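re: ur msg from earlier - yeah i can do the guanosine-5'-diphosphate complex, just paste it... oh wait u already did. ok heres what im feeding in:
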Amino acid sequence: MSNCAIVGINWGDEGKGRMVDLLTEDYDVVVRFQGGGNAGHTVINEKGKFALHLLPSGIFRDGTVNILGNGVALDLENLWKEIETVTAQGVAITPDNLKISDRASLLLPWHRDLDGLEEARLADKKFGSTKQGIAPFYSDKYQKKTILAGELFYPEHLKEHAKDLMEWKNLTLTGVYGAKPYTLDQIMSWLEEYGSKLKPFICDTGDFLEQANAEGKKILFEAQLGALRDLDYGIHPMTTSSNTLAAFAPVGSGFPAAKLDRIVGVVKAYSSCVGEGPFTCEWFGEEAEELRKAGGEYGAKTGRPRRVGPIDIVATRYGVEKQAATEIALTKLDVMNYMDQIPICEKYIVNGEETDKFPFPVLLADAKPVFKYMPGWKTDISGIRKFEDLPKEAQDYVLYVEKAIGCHISYVSVGAEREAIIIR
Ligand code: GDP
Ligand code: MG
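and the outut:
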């Protein structure tokens, strides 16, 4: 199989980074096609433990080329800091193994400011933004009010363009929010400082991908967040500002003609959700605390406790359909070792009626979960590498989920380390 996308089926943090790190062995190129440095992918391998934000999770494999496509929110400052951190941990990052699309738009310092200012204005109606500037960035991109990475190579043009954008942006900063305006010196010195460091990585990644494809190289597309946070198909308006679906991967990569042969949907054996928004299967109180602790559910980017609950079959089936997943990786099954019985959110009650169809976003606010339980296995399964060796209760749970969501589970992950995987 040549090309593959690894995508989230739920609200994010399903363990995509972990699966990309595992599967990159079979791929030559790894591409991030959307989102920005608000991602948190934790990867544990022989080189150490890493929290990746914008860098593709293929960065640890020798010989793998990693690409930031035109669809990402390119924050030069934070990317540079991330490169420095990962490099300090002993991973070589050079223009040979990292390439940045010249068509990626730059996330500018004022996008981060505006994110914080708007969250403050919203007060108790806030979105739970990570304040990385992602929403203001994508709004500006669609208004064509951003700078492309490739413009860094044309200094005269860059200065003119930056000046125009700054004048426009200062109207919002000062007029709407009463914040301080930017000066041209400020913005140019930021562009100069981080642009000069990252320019060697910027190129036409479309050309590179097309050629790689023509040479029979295999391309892996890595998503950020999950189907339920997709701008068009997610839990609007509590989504992210880009498209997290596999169908968008070719467009955001620089190689719109790319064909996806495999789409691996990553599903967690229970649910978690960072930030605000409807989360029907949510647990509260002690039950939630116990699961949160067992799963280490604290954000890789923010350290925020994640909201948790049982697996949500209604939302997961919807995510599988929207991602057009051809197979599933079920992660963190080992986290449920401690449970006497395994909880499942099987259906919702919407407007007093049971349903297994994922509702229109407005209806989610009042949707209630219907839980069912299966017997637990109550043993440590983290050392198991064959499906047949799992306790019968664990096998039954995997088979139940597979049937309920209608997609083959080909990987069962039982630990955070690269090798803690069962392949079916
Ligand atoms: P991503 O954003 O989808 O890449 O996922 P995150 O990295 O944010 O969250 C997944 C977390 O679970 C990370 O801390 C991983 O190290 C960890 N993890 C992944 N798979 C497993 C697993 O099978 N078992 C356990 N116990 N932890 C896992
Ligand atoms: Mg994450």
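cool cool. The mean pLDDT is 95. ping me if u need the other ligands too
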